[in-house]
Amino acid sequence: MDLYLEELERAIRSGELNVASESARGLANLKASVALTCSEASYLPERKISVKVVIEDRYISDISITLNLYPSMKFEDLKQLVLEKFEFPVQVQKWIAGKRLARDIDTLRSCGIRQDNDVLYLYLVSASSVGLNKEVLQTQHQRTHGFSETIPDAQLYTTGVQDLATGWQCPTCTLINEPTRPGCSVCGGSRPEEYIVPTGYELSNNERLRMEQEISFENLVIMERESNFRRHLAAEENDLIANADEFDCPVCFERIGARDGVMLRECLHMFCKECLQSQVLHAESAVVSCPHVDGSQLCLSVIQEREIKALVSDEVYQKHLTLSLTEAESRAPNSFHCQTPNCNGWCIYEDDVNTFNCSVCEKENCLTCKAIHEGISCRQYQNDVKYKAKNDIAAKRTQHKIEAMLRKGDAMKCPTCDIIVMKKDGCDWIRCTMCKTEICWVTKGPRWGPMGPDDISGGCQCGVDGKPCHPNCQNCH
Is 0.85 surpassed by the pTM of this model? Predict the structure, then answer.
């Protein structure tokens, strides 16, 4: 790659078009990231341009001079020029170009000063504010008069000094600003709210130009906002938002081309479609989390339902919907599942309701007995169950085995939904397969408080104040 770069630089410098083309083609084949920068010397020979310099201080403004300068000139050299010609100390000169304070190492060209009639602003601060005294100024004056270098002529034009009563004084830097300027031209401070533009005030040429530029800028901002809004509406019409640029998928590390991947709506993280499809397919919960991991921090955003539907096949999406319904049923208080075998019907019932007519299988469920016993009363059904349990050996054996596991601690009842759960191996953190409650195995209770994950107002409170939840805790968090 370095050989291609050296050849390209040499060929461009010497004007060898064929060699430059071959070198550029070689870099393109390598897909190299290259930035080209022309040196200031590349612009020479250059001509001087006529630059308008507006000079202001805390008392006067709107005085302008015209200087003939090279665009490649640095501001540190411009300060020296102004010192030699007008005896303004370098320390008090604050140059403003393009609404920002120029640095000494900046060139006029880099700050946008490239053609005739471009405008620079020179604000002169007080000598005392930069630590200058009479002795220092006298020394600089003597040094300045010792220079013999020819300085380009500068013509001074006075466009009219603003009366101190006309403009407004910046409360921060004390600069006298034009009456119509909404903010200080040097420090950006706001115009005093009580200031009123004098009646009959006539705009200067600088003010007209500035106000025209401000209106043009405001129009550009409005156009950009409208464009962004149209792009937002266009994005809303699509279930999946494609990536605009190439990126490396953070899951599989494959290079994904522009518009070949997906940017998630909630967090703007980008992945390839295959990795997101796998995330949905293997999700244990209906709420599918963003797979992005930053160090030890997991992204808390989720993949939206419309994104899931657009990513996976109809078969996988139906499984996802079934999982969603199952989770909703298990987490809903007072939920009841139809007792007909293989029926997917379920309901959420009120305390004063005793029956549930399933709309799927059209069977009547008794909510008191949690069973279907059409044609007989609840008393008759419960007596029948007791009678069968006495004579069903298999049912007895199963019941005895479960009770033994509970006594030994090999199994426990979920503190939320009361189903039997067991721990196979590993740490003391388990999750109920039905209601998804996080459980601390060693304390046999919920891991968190009533608000869910990270709520330490309840639960086992493991790690609070650096203390484990139990002497035998094996990392339940």
Answer: no
